[in-house]
Q: What sequence folds into this?
């Protein structure tokens, strides 16, 4: 699709804006020079008082932080807005109010500068984040995407050509970490807190099941595991050591389950490269176990650096730059459709 008033389509540095949840992320990626700058503002402290993300507060904070962060990132890169070649932003999935802040700022900037705007899929951003590292993976590969909202295994035959192999049937891996942490009264955000506590846990003190590994298939279900932890926690003496032991057993169960499904997905597709991304990809135990299995079984494993596992602007700038290079960007905000099949309309109720 061509944007009629886009001044340039030769990609220059692309500004990336991420506001899908509780992190305001901004970065600049240049197809020729790589990542030039990135900044992140985390709202975690604000939401901690409520024990979870409050969508309305998230939107308002993105409004406060986004434009100063854009200025800061441009300064870091030594660029002015006139040097940009495109503006990418997370178009979904995510919290709608939060997404709208990033979309409005990014599209207004693109419109004012007469640049192409690129609406990026948040999960494609995560999936491509390992490409920001040295010796990046090349398709075909299998991607394990594990975040607060998703646990997915995807066959990537080319960038942009994705086949869903397995999905979450209930709680996503990150969500399971967060909910389990909450029921054991750990502070928000639960995932990293539970992982930290697990380091003090003793191996073998508790054991939880590896859900859905006793049957074929690549889907995930973690909500039963959370219930097992709840029952063990209630019946326990609730000492600090027991809490750490339960955290360790929970983490081991999730990591083992993810590792088993990754091996299955590699076997099913014949791929020899695994890419792991999303917030849970920052889990040290998961990284170690997958790296060890890969070394033993002869497949390569790629992770983004820790800070690019969780939400960030760099992955959005990169994904936007790749789409822009491929000539994919958006038309101006006013849309009409010369061809429009009547059957594609949504029913009123
Ligand atoms: O990708 P992300 O930043 O946001 C979403 O797109 O959801 O992922 C956030 C999730 C949260 O559920 C968080 O608890 C989890 O990633 N997480 C972790 C760790 N760091 C973040 N889970 C386990 N171990 C970690 N070290
Ligand atoms: Zn995310």
A:
């Amino acid at each position: 699709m061509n944007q009629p008033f886009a001044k340039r389509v030769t990609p220059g540095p692309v500004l990336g804006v991420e506001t899908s949840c509780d992190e305001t992320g901004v970065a600049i990626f240049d197809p020729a020079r790589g990542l030039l700058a990135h900044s992140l503002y985390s709202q975690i402290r604000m939401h901690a008082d409520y024990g979870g993300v409050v969508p309305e507060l998230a939107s308002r904070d993105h409004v406060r932080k986004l434009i100063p962060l854009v200025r800061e990132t441009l300064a870091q890169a030594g660029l002015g807005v006139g040097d940009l070649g495109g503006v990418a932003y997370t178009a979904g999935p995510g919290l709608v109010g939060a997404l709208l802040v990033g979309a409005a700022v990014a599209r207004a900037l693109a419109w004012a500068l007469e640049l192409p705007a690129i609406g990026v899929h948040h999960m494609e951003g995560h999936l491509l984040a390992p490409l920001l590292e040295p010796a990046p993976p090349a398709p075909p590969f299998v991607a394990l995407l594990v975040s607060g909202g998703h646990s997915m295994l995807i066959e990537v035959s080319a960038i942009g050509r994705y086949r869903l192999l397995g999905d979450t049937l209930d709680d996503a891996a990150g969500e399971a970490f967060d909910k389990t942490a909450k029921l054991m009264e750990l502070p928000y955000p639960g995932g990293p807190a539970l992982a930290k506590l697990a380091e003090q846990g003793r191996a073998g003190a508790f054991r939880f099941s590896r859900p859905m590994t006793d049957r074929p298939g690549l889907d995930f279900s973690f909500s039963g595991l959370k219930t097992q932890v709840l029952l063990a926690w209630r019946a326990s003496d609730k000492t600090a050591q027991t809490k750490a032991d339960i955290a360790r057993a929970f983490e081991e169960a999730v990591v083992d389950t993810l590792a088993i499904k990754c091996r299955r997905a590699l076997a099913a597709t014949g791929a020899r490269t695994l890419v792991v991304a999303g917030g849970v990809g920052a889990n040290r135990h998961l990284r170690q176990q997958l790296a060890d299995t890969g070394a033993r079984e002869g497949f390569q494993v790629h992770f983004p650096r820790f800070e690019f596992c969780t939400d960030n602007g760099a992955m959005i700038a990169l994904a936007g730059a790749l789409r822009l290079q491929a000539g994919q960007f958006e038309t101006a905000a006013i849309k009409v459709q010369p061809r429009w099949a009547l059957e594609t309309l949504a029913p009123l109720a």
